[in-house]
Amino acid sequence: MKPLFLFRPEPGWSVSAQTARDMGLDVHGAPLFTIEPVEWTAPSPDDFDGILVGSANAFRHGGKHLEKLTRLPVHAVGEATADAARIAGFLVGLTGRGGLQGLVDELGNRKLQLLRLAGQDRVALRPPDGIEVETRVLYRAVAEDLSQESAELLRDGGVAVLHSGAAAARLRDEFDRLDLNSAVVDLAVIGPRVAEMAGEGWRSIHIADAPGDSELLALARALCQTEDQ
After folding, report:
1. Could you read off the pLDDT of 109-154 as tens digits, one per residue?
2. Could you write out the three-class secondary structure of the chain?
3. Distance CA 47, CA 185 (A)
4. What pTM was computed for the model?
């Protein structure tokens, strides 16, 4: 069985790693980013109809200013983000399943002023007619180097799991910096944008059937069980 490499930030890394181990997989890797808060000021909730959030990190790192916004409904990109919103004291409106752009599209056909709580590096959105989005940056990702242990193991190949475009781009940069051979590594990615940001030259790239951790790890398990031709 091929080794599995995970690179998402904590606390997601530990959650995915334990899930993968429970599936019988040989787990390696470490976060390629550390998430840290940035200073921000919450606007008046009276100016908005709701909050748009693409990551649970907004609630993990938003701090005390979030308390000023709890009367606004949160439209969350997925279940993990929705759960983090509830824990932070928010009511959840719509929960998406197909990325943040898909969530915004679902909110179309109405006039809305939305406040987007986001990270410094974020996906550009194209709001439908009638929806206006104002953004506040609450956190940023600080890049970490690929560990020597992971680099040495990756020289022999394996399956790398990528939960974000930022992780894909970072892994590509680390392979270039360390002169690693991407042609011996299969990628399991959470969506088409992540596959695009990973670039070319990998042994194979496979996109999960749905943008969730369980679907992504199921794909990764299948790839780990596939023998090289």
Report:
1. 889 999 999 999 888 999 999 999 999 999 999 999 999 999 999 9
2. CCCEEECCCCCHHHHHHHHHHHCCCCEECCCCEEEEECCCCCCCHHHCCEEEECCCHHHHHCHHHHHHHCCCCEEECCHHHHHHHHHCCCCEEEECCCHHHHHHHHCCCCCEEEEEEEECCCCCCCCCCCEEEEEEEEEEEEECCCCHHHHHHHCCCEEEEECCHHHHHHHHHHHHHHCCCHHHEEEEECCHHHHHHHCCCCCEEEECCCCCHHHHHHHHHHHHCCCCC
3. 48
4. 0.82
Instruction: Quote the tokens at residue 138.
Output: 């609450």
CA pair distance 113, 100, nearest whole angstrom = 16
User: Is the dihedral angle over the CA atoms 29, 161, 21, 15 positive or is it negative?
Assistant: positive
Contact 73, 52 (CB under 8 A): no
- The 10s digit of each residue's pLDDT in 158-200 is 999 999 888 999 999 999 999 999 999 999 999 898 999 999 9
**pLDDT recorded at residue 108:** 87
Q: What is the CA radius of gyration of the chain?
A: 18
Contact 178, 185 (CB under 8 A): no
* Mean predicted confidence (pLDDT) in 31-60: 96
